[in-house]
């Protein structure tokens, strides 16, 4: 018998976001493909990590995070998300929000189980499910408001369906789920006895008077909801890999054990930096950050519209899906490569976010860049 990669591995491909970042580096372009926010690091976050290193906090923390960070997250969950969490029983710090989701999937799902995803989806959600032999099934969000069809959800759910992922605000569409939508999804999840996984990593980036609503605040599904988030985006520390899961104690202990097995713990001094940021940054920091991203959204959407790449203006997050049907190329990958070759600006072809063959006339643009970089990208796009 010859040696081969596992059957599980054969289903997983490298993220197209990563591929386009490599292509961007090849031509020394401007990377609007990967969600790397390059805003200035807040001083309390930076100083907190530096102080921790200097004070010798360079060893393993507890598997579910330092007491200081778990307590800070628990306070934040009550103050901002309106979810009551015991830092000793309900909070697990992990290797970014992706690590929290991976640990939750290993802890709660069995091979062959199904989980519903909304497409356009975030590719790491799909590949995480595939990595644990769980079957993703898809419901479609329809532009321009990215509405879902309740009838479609009722058609695709089966006795094997064990969970649903709600990404709000969503990557790549920028959709922010409304209370009415969440209440319908709560009833659906209750009737079909589904775990509700929620990815809320962009929770502070919500525009046009909308409010972020955590599904875990809905009493009917509080027990079965695993709230996943982190500080990669909020504090512009994507390389630090500090995320967390918050859920009922019935699930948290095993998620923590799996997290210990896979990640051991989050980087201890970086946990200290995040904890200080949560504790010391005022609400003004978050509102100013949201306003800054709102201005960036307005800038990039205006330019995209000017050059014929009509944007679906996002309700939240820091991505925009744009109509690329006027660009040369039969596929969205060819269209994004044309954009890169013509302007030196990297985007991601929309088909990377669909399993149903859609998205070939879309590209995703990330606007989480400094004003100088975003201005340069806009000038380059105007060459079209």
Supply the key terms.
384 residues, alpha/beta, Aspartate Aminotransferase, domain 1, Aspartate Aminotransferase, domain 2, 2 domains, 7-stranded mixed β-sheet, 4-stranded antiparallel β-sheet, 13 helices, 41% helix
What can you tell me about this protein's structure?
The chain has 384 residues and is of the alpha/beta class. It has two domains: 7-41 and 284-381, Alpha-Beta Complex (Aspartate Aminotransferase, domain 1); 43-280, Aspartate Aminotransferase, domain 2 (3-Layer(aba) Sandwich), CATH 3.40.640. It has 13 helices and 13 strands. Helix 4 (67-81) packs parallel to helix 10, helix 5 runs parallel beside helix 6 and helix 5 packs across helix 9. The N and C termini lie far apart (54 Å). The relative contact order is 0.18.
Write the layout of secondary structure elements.
Elements: H1 7-10, H2 16-26, E1 30-31, H3 43-54, H4 67-81, E2 91-95, H5 96-108, E3 114-119, H6 123-131, E4 135-140, H7 150-156, E5 161-167, H8 179-191, E6 195-199, E7 225-230, E8 242-246, H9 249-263, H10 268-280, H11 283-306, E9 311-312, E10 319-323, H12 332-343, E11 345-346, E12 348-349, E13 362-366, H13 371-381
Parallel strand pairs: 1-11, 3-4, 3-5, 5-6, 6-7
Antiparallel strand pairs: 2-8, 7-8, 9-10, 10-13, 12-13
Helix pairs in contact: 3-10, 4-10, 5-6, 5-9, 11-13
